């Protein structure tokens, strides 16, 4: 095992896939000469040249669409958004072109490509630079969505996303790039994590905290706090939201009968809403309490430090939600 | 339906701006006429079928703009790409998509070009290099840049022709894509089918500059052509295609044309936004088919009998397409859930499998 950062893990995945397959190229703002806004593509220009690592103009709609066209033309583009906040400009090409083309062409034209970059809140970046974009991407059939929370997941899932034959949105955590973790050594062969497999990040029997992406770490913090209170929480990291590991969700519900969904996004029509719907449709009789959600407050992200803090989901709120589904008064209250 | 013998005879008379017949073989000229007649008859058949409810949805006819399809696609190689907007039937025919497949798609049948999944606005035939059929105004322009990027990436000498309406030049996607095509010298021919209107809005009301000048400042060489004149169009396109193939980068053409019918089948031909007189005078004087026909008559390269025979032949193709479409099966119910994803992952649920409909029927 190597201990590397989330950023290095992504960099390794990109380099290995570009090495393996000449049709893979990386395009986005600042990805080449500047090494990437978050240095994810560090050294790739030097290694692969400007044919395959391409600095784009600031034109999200344009270069996202160019990526879709290149995929239609037989390449496997990796389109980097400096952050997914800016990808809102590109959503027409993501949804109307990338997601719908295979269907609209009666199966003639697959669109194998990856849209990647950071999503979610960083620190005090306020409304336009701090938002979770999962719902916009997961809503449209035809696209897949992956949200790795650890260096190992980042590497294994990015490699799988690049090899997948459909458009995949790959959302990274802006605050995770420096996170270190164990990742299998390069010499130990291809490390690929298939899409659609959730991962139990902590085993437990009293309550299930289901989550994805960066929030995995908040869930683990909450589980630690609950442990002090004698509560054994399970943390299920979905890792990919489409395809969704429904089996793993049902398994944890069958085990604990109580669920809290934790996400960084807004509550209205959020990921938790979908998960709650699926659980009540398929495991209603196993529930001992309503499913609760811990999300960002239903407001644009404020700037002021104190307001930002209460707008974001945190471990204490997760603890309180867990206590509520357990019908007990916990210490965090 | 227009009869070839009743199509205006005044067209093009004494118009010295027309390109001469020199440089074209007689057979080629007759071929042009027959091909454009096929497009016209095809669209007339679609119009007829729409009127009796055989075709639904939005259906945009290309009548009046046939020389654009032929002039910009005819000179291409089979392995070149063509991509366009929703007004796409005749471009598909021009790129070699079978009339049967196009008509069956309009009828929403399983034998249609995209198996009944796309309809009039989304004809595709990837094997023929016909890359659609796109419904969001301007969205195909970045896609064309991407096809061009893929060609260049693989060091091929193919090119991509990208059609768009005049209204598309006001979209950000247009400017973003032309800019990238210019900086990376992508092998794309951008063609604005300038029919003077975007639905009911005259181009002059939404642009301070004419179409040709809208690419200025992006570094893509701009041209204009009377695209009712197939010979002028063909000649220009041959020249531009050669340049693009030689690696000179993108080109841009303001192809001046006119739409003889309403914006789509649900719209009137004329009305508040353009007068009946305007349309009638254009139909009389600028019909690309009549223009070519009369020049062939005048040069005594074509007889009335030959023309009648030509028309019989293309009508037979179109009738056969309509019969084929009529007979073709509708897509099976199960097709609702096919082709959502090209790779169904081994793990997890993709949610398109009909589970959302369980127990409904
Ligand atoms: C982004 C977008 N906005 C609006 C429409 C609705 N719409 C369809 S066609 C059209 C006019 C387009 O005109 P033009 O580009 O000149 O093409 P033409 O129809 O003349 O061939 C409009 C407004 C659309 N399809 N896409
Ligand atoms: Mg127009």
In short, what is this structure?
The complex is a heterodimer of chains A (333) and B (361). Chain A is built from 13 helices and 14 strands.
Structure characterization notes:
The complex is a heterodimer of chains A (333) and B (361). Chain A is an alpha/beta fold. Chain A has two domains: 2-188, 3-Layer(aba) Sandwich (Rossmann fold); 199-325, Rossmann fold, CATH 3.40.50. Chain A contains 13 helices and 14 strands. Chain A has helices spanning 6-20, 44-48, 60-72, 91-99, 101-104, 126-129, 134-138, 151-163, 215-228, 246-256, 271-283, 305-311, 315-325; strands at 2-5, 24-28, 53-55, 76-80, 113-119, 144-146, 167-173, 180-183, 199-202, 207-211, 233-237, 240-242, 259-262, 292-294. In chain A, helix 2 (44-48) links the parallel strand 2 (24-28) and strand 3. In chain A, helix 1 (6-20) packs parallel to helix 8 (151-163) and helix 3 packs parallel to helix 4. The longest helix of chain A has 15 residues, at 6-20. Chain B is α/β, with parallel strands linked by helices. Chain B has one domain: Rossmann fold (3-Layer(aba) Sandwich), CATH 3.40.50. Helix content of chain B is 39%, strand content 10%. Chain B is built from eleven helices and eight strands. Chain B has helices at 26-51, 66-73, 89-94, 99-106, 140-153, 172-183, 203-206, 230-245, 276-285, 288-298, 304-327, and strands spanning 81-84, 130-133, 160-165, 188-194, 197-198, 201-202, 222-226, 251-256. In chain B, strands 2-1-3-4-8-7 form a six-stranded parallel β-sheet, with helices on both faces. In chain B, strands 5-6 form a two-stranded antiparallel ribbon. In chain B, helix 8 (230-245) links the parallel strand 7 and strand 8 (251-256). In chain B, helix 1 (26-51) crosses helix 11 (304-327), helix 2 runs parallel beside helix 8 and helix 5 runs parallel beside helix 6 (172-183). The longest helix of chain B is centred in the first third of the chain and has 26 residues, at 26-51. Chain B is globular and about 70 Å long. Chain B starts with 25 loop residues before the first helix and ends in a 34-residue tail after the last helix. The model of chain B is unreliable at 11-16 (pLDDT under 50). At the A-B interface, helix 3, helix 4 and helix 5 of A face strand 2, helix 5 and helix 6 of B. The complex binds thiamine diphosphate (TPP) and magnesium ion. Thiamine diphosphate (TPP) binds at residues 87, 135-137, 165-168, 193, 195, 197-199, 259, 263 of chain B.
